[in-house]
Amino acid sequence: MAATLEHLVGLQAQVPRVPHLALRDRLAGFEPGELDGLMTARAVVRTQLVRTTLHTVTPGPPRRSAS
């Protein structure tokens, strides 16, 4: 799941449950508890990115999109 977030370069997350819904729509067999566990372990985080909008991303150096 962290690899999916890296591939997407993060998910908009102004509302806490939105990343769960976005991943449910993109991943077959998505389990919300898996994302919750990654957040608890700080393997993914919600943070301000573009124009101070909250996004769910993997921590570490920023990554540029291919576009």
Put the structure in a nutshell.
The protein is an alpha+beta fold. It has helices at residues 2-8, 18-26, 32-40; strands at residues 11-12, 45-48, 54-57.
Taking pLDDT < 50 over at least 5 consecutive residues as the criterion, the unreliable ranges are none
Distance between the termini: 22 Å
Shape: globular
Number of strands: 3
| Strand neighbour order, sheet with most strands | 1-3-2
Q: Over all CA atoms, what is the radius of gyration?
A: 11 Å
Enumerate how many helices there are, as a single number.
Answer: 3
Write down the secondary-structure element order: HEHHEE
Query: Percent of residues in beta strands?
Result: 5-15%
The average pLDDT score comes to 81
Helix content: 25-40%
Q: How would you classify the helix and strand content by structural class?
A: alpha+beta
Largest sheet entry:
3 strands, antiparallel
Question: Can you walk me through this structure?
Answer:
It contains 3 helices and 3 strands, in the order αβααββ. The chain is α+β, with helices and mostly antiparallel strands. A 3-stranded antiparallel beta sheet has the order 1-3-2. The longest helix has 9 residues. The mean pLDDT is 81.
